[in-house]
Design goal:
The complex is a heterotetramer, with 1 copy of chain A, 1 copy of chain B and 2 copies of chain C.
Chain A: E1 7-18, E2 21-32, E3 36-41, H1 47-55, E4 62-67, E5 70-72, H2 77-82, E6 85-88, H3 100-104, E7 111-112, E8 115-116, H4 118-131, H5 148-160, E9 166-170, H6 178-193, E10 197-201, H7 205-211, E11 214-219, E12 222-228, H8 234-242, E13 260-269, E14 273-281, E15 285-290, H9 296-303, E16 311-316, E17 322-323, H10 328-333, E18 336-339, H11 343-347, H12 354-359, H13 363-366, E19 367-368, E20 371-372, H14 374-387, H15 404-416, E21 422-426, H16 434-449, E22 453-457, H17 461-467, E23 470-475, E24 478-484, H18 490-497
Parallel strand pairs in A: 3-10, 3-11, 6-9, 9-10, 15-22, 15-23, 18-21, 21-22
Antiparallel strand pairs in A: 1-2, 1-4, 4-5, 7-8, 11-12, 13-14, 13-16, 16-17, 19-20, 23-24
Chain B: E1 11-18, H1 22-37, E2 43-49, H2 55-68, E3 72-75, H3 84-92, E4 96-100, H4 106-112, E5 118-120, H5 123-137, E6 143-148, H6 154-170, E7 173-179, H7 184-197, E8 201-206, H8 209-221, E9 229-231, H9 237-244, E10 250-253, H10 256-273, E11 280-281, E12 285-288, H11 289-292
Parallel strand pairs in B: 1-2, 1-3, 3-4, 4-5, 5-11, 6-7, 6-8, 8-9
Antiparallel strand pairs in B: 10-12
Chain C: H1 2-32, H2 39-48, H3 50-64, H4 72-89, H5 94-118, H6 123-142, H7 154-158, E1 160-161, E2 164-165, H8 166-184, H9 186-196, H10 198-203, H11 208-234, H12 244-254, H13 266-285, H14 290-315
Antiparallel strand pairs in C: 1-2
The chains are: A alpha/beta, B alpha/beta, C mainly alpha.
The complex binds adenosine-5'-triphosphate (2 copies) and magnesium ion (2 copies).
The site of one magnesium ion (MG) has 6 residues of chain A, from helix 1.
Chain lengths: 512, 293, 323, 323
């Protein structure tokens, strides 16, 4: 039998093609029991594909695997699970009308003669949620009522609900804030101590340094190298991923503050957004920080007209007259764009090609008297596929067949093509690789330099601190504080984010 | 069951087939007209079903009527057998039941040991009249086709039988018999196809006038209006014009406006005299260009 | 604790809403006709709903897995036809004939289900095809004639318990069992999952095809059961159940089951059936003409879903409805 | 370049596939009947398809935005009824009557559309309601009588150009325009976007409600246009178009348009209509009886979507079908 350090899974010469496109080339790879093995690589490198092959949701086209020394070629996910291999998917796969508990234990509902034992189910779910620190989530709440972040935690909980020997986590923290990430890591450490092998896919290098034991770099479907985590610096990992040296220090922001581009006054929307006020200047990048469910998404959705305002006013420019934004259409007409947080549900037309996706908000520009010019459409798509480095086989490749990160790039491209004055990014780098992240940061800096005004919502505090001129912190739907660049630190921001139970304090206009 | 209404007048329930059908609409209007003139004699309630095939709805309606209480039911049954049990139930509740329009199955009634008088025309006889009139214009061996109603509709079956009687008697050649589902468009489709397949076709016999309208269109499109005769049934208003100008050879009038009235009068008769029920045949008449003049 | 605080009001508002709508209808008809409020009326309605109810239960399940079954009327007719032929033409013993009837329904459902899962086709079009096929087969089997079978099936219609007919009790039983399966068993949760997100359901290890197949088979089988009752009351008429599919779907949707899958309740469907039937009976009783009946029925169908919209909005207080 | 290499074969396989299926049907009927291959047959078919085609165009659009319109048959009947009453009962001048007819169709479509968008209700149930309402209104308007109007509308049916009837040419024109709008205009893209992902469409600044409303209105208007042709040929019969909705949907789906929205082609719909009509005419020409007709029609409907499944799979060669 295998020792605690023995290879539990060996992958040998695995290949995979999708139609004409080769996604994995002869991948060799070992996973050890009781270790967290990080898999990193650019968007579309093939990480998810590899993980899915191991978890049984894709079939390989060549090569072989052994699990515990025995030949392993799962016929499907259930088969893999029977052999002790589980995976937490990159995309959310929950059922909104089922409750949290039902979602978590869907694969193995406690039953007798097919009848569910709800008492036992709820007890188990509560135990599990407590273990990963989600005590405040009612287990009989339908999942449809939860925020994206909470849903991701439920998804993780579902992955952890059953015993397994090999656990694959595909970008589990993409929409988690630090607090949940910490809870997740505690859980991972516990599993590691129990001898579970873990394959951890992430684009967040700090996390990888923090939790992984080994790191494997995948580039264009080939294994580049495998190292113990301590032997490589973040820069070295990134360089291997990208295959070249990249400057990852975001251009230092010179807060060249222009005139006011957008002013929000006493914005209230729904029960979760209360009295938010701020100014956004031309050429400025404003961050929105906060815990899960703090109301960041709802705030920007309200500004964009996606949700109805209950009260409050929005001014464009320095005029004294407020604008009425009743729908996203109005917002776009006023030069506001929103890159939504859930690309699959809100951003993309999955069966349509990349070109069609990019064209959608720009049709007025691509048409004359309502008739579209296919040439103009193609040119636009080409340009943005090139500048955005979107990895696709052809411009008309359906968006659903792109890798997660490339899908995100398509959503961004479709709005960049529109050339709005105020751009709102909700979790723009969710699932984006490090290289592309820096490209996006550079692009944001460039947009700001061209006089655009940007709002960035992100759960990644370091990211916000790197790119923003000011950071507004929301806590339980209220604006807790605003920090200018010279005043922010993780401590102050976190303190503000947690302040919801203490007296609300405001430092509006603290920016210089 | 409660008997007799508050005002002491007998209550008669007229249970029709689809009131969306012109024929039954005419029948209903006849009944209402009669009631308007004899308000002092009885109370009238008219109910109908959604479409002619909806046996279930008709059974349900009668059950409701039994539950509500009535003195007589005059029914144009949607099916000649399926309505018998519920009629039996009505009779058991002391209600006088009169059958109009579509004759209930005699053999079945006998087996159930009940007697329900029938007041109405003989569809087969009517169809035979029309068929004979047509046959006089043709010679033996001429190709003809029948457009039937919905399969298993009793009056449709009767009319087809009547047409067949006439065809056999005159030695005509029946080349095709298809269902036009009582519908104009469906009939047009069938007639078009039959006309193409049988270039020598001399006549189309339709089991109702709506389908005759479809046949008129189909033959017009095929450019064969002048060589193919069309026979209809029911004498609806829209067809009368066509009979007059010769596009439809003839149709059959069952005097729909009187049918229900006969039934009602007969029911009142039985209620008043407690006479033993007997069948009563109503006239069917051939309608041709001459009779319409 | 949390449980009782949150779940029950939701159920209650559901049922109370439906019951309210029903009550309103009853009130209107009670006021506008003479003898509406009578034991006889309710007895009649109780006698008239069993077949529709049973088919609506199957349809509810089908809608929950995001399918639709347009063939129910024809399949019922075909099952009834087989029953009728077996009894009236071949004089086969009753139990055998009943089994044959149920089997025909089951097989039709299985056939639709198999085609749907084998090629992952939309059930709308597959069951549309099955609707034609089953109707054609019905005409063939019966040779387009009504077969008289009431005399052989009296025990079905005439058995009563506490003044309620056996078919009615059977229908209620089926409703309760189906609701129980839906909300309390693994299979029920799997149905909801499949209806919500098929891909995710597959990834969660649910045998999606098997669930769908089973649901279509159940829908077919229930058509067979409905056929027993329907035939006992109306004879084996080859035109039975024409247009019934839309009536059944309307009842289910009025009961608040979503056509998009993933959301529905069998008990609410029962209310939906009641509303449709009370409406029909009531309108007939007021002596409304066919055009009026159609107009009112259409308006009630639309009004019911509009009401459902507000009920759902009330329930998820605060969550943005636009989403 | 890439584009041209990939796109054109896709279109071709689409149309060739449909044309192949059609050819197969023609062949079968050509061999099994005497006079199928004749100018008369094709003249007849050309004469019979215009109204169905025009309604199927509207239905294609409706399906593309992930809706469904069950009211088309009734709305056509109502428009025709208004036309008939205007001409035959009130003797209103033809142009005015025609405008009234079109207007009625448009208004019905608008009404359905308004209800659908105002409460974001499933169009299935709203148009089911509208189907009842429009049918009821038709009975009211015509007083349940057929109105003879052919003599007033001869110019519609009798005008021909190069041997083709005006209605046929109109239908072809509508098909071409609708296909052009669908694939080449902003509005067409918006329809596809709305049908593919409504939320994303809204967040992309598309006036989702306006698009849906417009599509339902167009569907209604096209029912009005179809009513002109239908009434000219079959008179204003209040029972016109009963069951037509399912026939139209079958044609559209056979043409490969998805019931899930976002995918469809008007030209393929035209092929679908042809297939259905050739089937009907061919079966009638073989003298098949009603049961056979039903059975065969059902089988062809299912076979057509099964074929479509393989065609689609061929097209996206290699892409994981399970995904
Ligand atoms: N079903 C499919 N059909 C065609 N191509 C596909 C399909 N699924 C994945 N691909 C392609 O395979 C490549 C690898 O995708 P994969 O999802 O494995 O990337 P990844 O490394 O997980 O990227 P990310 O970090 O963005 O999630 C991508 O270029 C993608 O476009
Ligand atoms: N506690 C809660 N209970 C129910 N629904 C909630 C809760 N918190 C948030 N939601 C819902 O979840 C959605 C997103 O919430 P919100 O905008 O507050 O999240 P956020 O601050 O963007 O956080 P994140 O995106 O990180 O989850 C909204 O529709 C909101 O109504
Ligand atoms: Mg991935
Ligand atoms: Mg958010």
């Amino acid at each position: 039998m295998i020792g605690s350090a023995g290879a539990i899974l060996s992958v040998r010469r695995i290949c995979k093609t999708f139609g004409p496109v080769r996604v994995l080339h002869d991948v060799d790879f070992d996973l050890n029991a009781g270790a967290v093995h990080a898999l990193v690589g650019e968007n579309g490198a093939g990480k998810t594909t590899l993980a899915r092959i191991i978890a049984g949701t894709h079939r390989d086209d060549g090569g072989g695997m052994t699990l515990n020394g025995q030949s392993y070629r799962p016929a499907g996910r259930t088969d893999a699970q029977r052999r002790g291999v589980r995976m937490v998917m990159q995309e959310l796969n929950l059922f909104p009308t089922l409750t949290v508990a039902e979602n978590i234990f869907l694969e193995d509902l406690p039953r007798r003669f097919g009848v569910i034992n709800y008492r036992l189910l709820h007890r188990r779910a509560e135990e599990l949620m407590a273990a990963i620190g989600l005590r405040d989530l009612a287990v009989d709440e339908p999942v449809g009522n939860l925020t994206v972040g909470s849903r991701q935690m439920v998804e993780i909980a579902a992955g952890l609900s059953q015993d397994c020997r090999l656990l694959i986590l595909d970008e589990p923290t993409a929409s988690l804030t630090d607090r949940e990430t910490c809870l997740l890591f505690d859980q991972i450490r516990r599993l590691r101590a129990r001898g579970v092998a873990m394959l951890y896919i992430s684009h967040r290098m700090q996390e990888i340094k923090q939790i992984a034991d080994t790191v494997t770099v995948l580039r264009d479907g080939r294994i580049i190298s495998t190292h113990a985590i301590d032997t490589l610096t973040v820069e070295e990992i990134v360089n291997r991923m990208v295959g070249r040296e990249i400057s990852h220090a975001p251009a230092a922001r010179t807060a060249a503050k222009g005139r006011v581009a957008l002013r929000v006054e006493n914005l209230c929307a729904g029960p979760r957004v209360q009295n938010i006020s701020f100014d956004l200047h031309k050429g400025e990048v404003l961050g929105l920080a906060g815990l899960i469910g703090a109301g960041r998404t709802e705030t920007v959705r309200a500004i964009f007209g996606a949700d109805r305002l209950t009260s409050g006013r929005i001014y464009l420019g320095e005029t004294a007259k407020h604008v009425r934004i009743r729908s996203p259409r109005d917002a776009i007409a006023h030069g506001i764009a929103l890159i939504p947080e859930d690309r699959k549900e809100q951003g993309l037309f999955l069966p349509l090609g990349v070109d069609r996706n990019i064209a959608v908000p720009n049709l007025s520009r691509l048409s004359c008297a309502g008739i579209i010019s296919p040439a103009a459409e193609r040119t636009l798509a080409r340009r943005h596929i090139d500048t955005g480095a979107i990895k696709c086989a052809a411009p008309d490749q359906p968006a659903e067949t792109l890798s997660g990160g490339n899908q995100q790039k398509v959503v961004i491209a479709k709005w960049l093509a529109r050339d709005c004055d105020v751009l709102i990014f909700d979790e723009p780098t969710r699932g984006i690789d490090v290289g592309a992240k820096f490209e996006i940061y550079a692009m944001m800096a460039d947009l700001a330099a061209r006089g655009k005004a940007l709002i960035v919502v992100s759960s990644d505090l370091r990211e916000l601190m790197a790119i923003c001129d000011r950071i507004a912190v929301l806590s339980d739907g209220c604006l807790a504080a605003t920090f200018s660049r010279n005043a922010f630190s993780e401590q102050t921001i976190n303190a503000a984010a947690f302040s919801r139970h203490t007296a609300t304090f405001r430092t509006q206009g603290a920016a210089g | 069951t409660k008997r007799g209404s508050q005002d002491g007048k007998p209550r008669i329930a007229l249970v029709m087939k689809s009131l969306a059908n012109e024929f039954f609409k005419t029948m209903e209007e006849g009944a209402r007209g009669h009631h308007a003139e004899h308000k002092d004699l009885y109370n009238l309630k008219v109910v109908g079903i959604r479409n002619e095939e909806d046996v279930a709805q008709q059974v349900d309606l009668i059950e409701t009527i039994i539950a509500q209480g009535t003195d007589a039911i005059v029914i144009a049954p949607a099916d000649s057998e399926a309505l018998i049990p519920v009629c039996k139930k009505a009779m058991a509740a002391g209600i006088v039941v009169i059958n109009i329009d579509n004759k209930l199955d005699r053999a079945r009634l006998e087996r159930e040991g009940i007697q329900i008088p029938f007041v109405g025309p003989d569809n087969r006889k009517g169809a035979k009249l029309a068929g004979d009139y047509l046959a006089a214009k043709l010679k033996a061996g001429d190709e003809v086709a029948i457009i039937e109603g919905v399969p298993n509709a009793f009056n449709g079956i009767q009319r087809k039988a009547g047409f067949q009687d006439a065809i056999a008697a005159a030695g005509l050649n029946l080349v095709s018999s298809q269902s036009g589902n009582w519908e104009t468009a469906k009939a047009a489709e069938c007639v078009s196809a039959i006309a193409t397949e049988y270039p020598g076709l001399k006549a189309v016999l339709c089991a109702n006038d709506s389908m005759a309208l479809g046949a008129v269109d189909a033959l017009k499109t095929a450019g064969r209006t002048d060589t193919v005769y069309i026979v209809g049934f029911d004498n609806i208003e829209a067809v009368q014009k066509l009979v007059k100008n010769g596009k439809v050879l003839c149709t059959v009038d069952q005097h729909g406006d009187q049918l229900a009235v006969y039934g009602i009068e007969y029911a009142l008769d039985i209620l008043n005299t407690k006479a033993a029920p007997a069948d009563k045949e109503t006239p069917v008449d051939l309608v041709t260009a001459e009779t319409l003049k | 604790m949390n449980n009782s605080h949150r779940r029950i009001p939701a159920w209650l508002t559901d049922y109370l809403g439906m019951a309210g709508a029903l009550g309103l209808l009853l009130l209107i008809f009670g006021l506008s006709t003479e003898n509406f409020f009578s034991a006889a009326t309710f007895g009649t309605i109780a006698n008239q709903i069993p077949d529709t109810t049973i088919m609506a239960v199957g349809m509810t399940w089908v809608l929950i897995i995001a399918g639709i079954d347009l063939s129910v009327g024809s399949v019922m007719a075909l099952s009834g036809a087989v029953l009728g032929v077996a009894l009236a033409r071949f004089g086969i013993p009753l139990p055998v004939a009943v089994v044959a009837c149920l089997l025909v329904g089951l097989l039709c459902g299985l056939a639709s289900g198999l085609i749907v899962v084998a090629w992952s086709l939309p059930s709308f079009i597959v069951t549309l095809g099955m609707m034609e096929i089953a109707r054609g087969a019905t005409y063939l089997v019966t040779q387009s004639r009504t077969l008289y079978v009431s005399d052989r099936l009296e025990m079905i219609t005439d058995t009563t318990l506490l003044g309620l007919s056996a078919p009615f009790l059977l229908a209620v039983l089926i409703v309760l069992v189906a609701q129980f399966v839906l909300s309390m068993t693994v299979f029920g949760r799997h149905m909801v999952a499949v209806g919500t997100n098929e891909t995710a359901a597959r990834l969660s290890g649910i045998a999606v095809r098997r669930v769908r197949l089973a649901v279509f088979a159940v829908s077919g089988l229930l058509c067979g059961v409905a056929a027993l009752i329907n035939t006992a009351r109306y004879q084996a008429n080859p035109n039975n159940g024409i247009g019934m599919e839309l009536q059944v779907i309307a009842a289910v949707v009025i009961g608040g089951t979503s056509l998009m899958g993933g959301r529905g309740s069998v008990v609410s469907t029962f209310f939906g059936v009641l509303i449709i039937k009370v409406l029909g009976t009531g309108l007939a009783q007021t002596g409304a003409q066919e055009p009026t009946k159609r107009l009112v029925t259409g308006c009630v169908i639309i009004a019911a879903v509009v009401l459902d919209y507000y009920r759902r909005r009330l329930r998820k207080t605060g969550t943005e409805a636009a989403q």
